[in-house]
Specification:
alpha/beta, three-stranded antiparallel beta sheet, six-stranded parallel beta sheet, 11 helices, 21% strand, globular, binds pantoate
């Protein structure tokens, strides 16, 4: 089906992408960048559409980054469908799709790791050791390749967004990191490439994540400042779904991702829940005190 937009140009090399973007910037054009691991859904498309509104040139990268998967995780099985991704990129308004292969990104074993321990070792990092080191390392590399740009990340991966924002500031990268709201199914399930793993029964119970977050937010808004009480409330809602296996339910400061005392100011509520093979995450913000 024609989208009415030109098909984005494919670029597989780092040198080729850098040259094109250097030329664009020299001509005074701004660059928007959306890094992805492919198997795009409407959540990714909303990032590309936002980048399209804000910028003259829009680049999407598709690279399933081995550094952010632990042994035994789903790197080999991670869903991939390049033709469908390109169609979605075209429809959302991408100009260039960067599709490096493994050797292009990592011609040598990686000796450099970007690590933000205070933000990376909590929440998802506690059960996925090294995951955010892999994310920060590949995102740093992609941002260096792309150069001066606005880069768009979903709030659905709030810990990732927090880490990337801090990394860009700490390293003075010439990048404006833009966080974009979570896109949800009508029943509240946050869009994720990993939703493809859910059986019908698991899918029907998966909206429990948002229900738990909303119950936690209602408690905070009613004046509860004890993170443990809010976490217990969220865990009790998750426990109502028989197929759900809770990894964490956390109430934390939105900036540090930890809670060292009573909840105050901008709070983030975050949950991670396994349904069979799928590990789902979600989060929402609220105000305390
Ligand atoms: O959110 C993702 O899909 C990935 O973590 C990212 C940011 C593309 C890095 O591989």
């Amino acid at each position: 089906m024609s989208t009415g937009r030109p098909t984005p140009e494919l670029e597989a090399t780092i040198g080729g992408l850098s040259r094109r973007l250097a030329e664009a910037r020299a001509a005074g054009r701004t660059v928007g960048f959306v890094p992805t691991m492919g198997f795009l859904h409407a959540g990714h498309c909303s990032l590309v559409e936002r980048a399209r509104v804000d910028n003259d040139v829009v680049v999407v990268s598709i690279f399933v980054n081995p550094l952010q998967f632990n042994p035994g995780e789903d790197f080999d099985d991670y869903p991939r469908d390049l033709d469908r991704d390109l169609e979605m990129c075209a429809r959302a308004g991408a100009d260039i799709v960067f599709v490096p292969d493994g050797p292009e990104m990592y011609p040598e074993p990686v000796a450099t790791t970007v690590r933000l321990p205070a933000l990376a070792d909590v929440l998802c990092g506690a059960s996925r050791a090294g995951h955010f080191d892999g994310v920060a390392t590949v995102v740093a590399k992609l941002l260096v390749i792309v150069g001066e740009c606005s880069a768009y990340f979903g709030e659905k991966d709030f810990q990732q967004l927090t880490i990337v924002t801090r990394m860009a500031a700490d390293l003075s990268l010439p990048v404006r990191v833009v966080g974009c709201g979570t896109v949800r199914e009508p029943d509240g399930l946050a869009l994720s490439s990993r939703n493809a793993y859910l059986s019908e029964a698991e899918r029907s119970q998966a909206p429990v994540l948002l229900r738990a977050l909303e119950a936690g937010a209602a408690l905070v808004q009613s004046g509860e400042a004890d993170p443990a009480a809010v976490e217990a409330e969220m865990a009790s809602v998750i426990a109502t779904a028989p197929l759900a296996e809770i990894d964490y339910a956390a109430a934390a400061s939105a900036s540090t991702l930890t809670a060292d005392g009573p909840l105050r100011g901008d709070v983030r509520l975050l949950v991670a829940v396994r349904f069979g093979k799928a590990r789902l995450i979600d989060n929402i913000g609220c105000r305390a005190g």
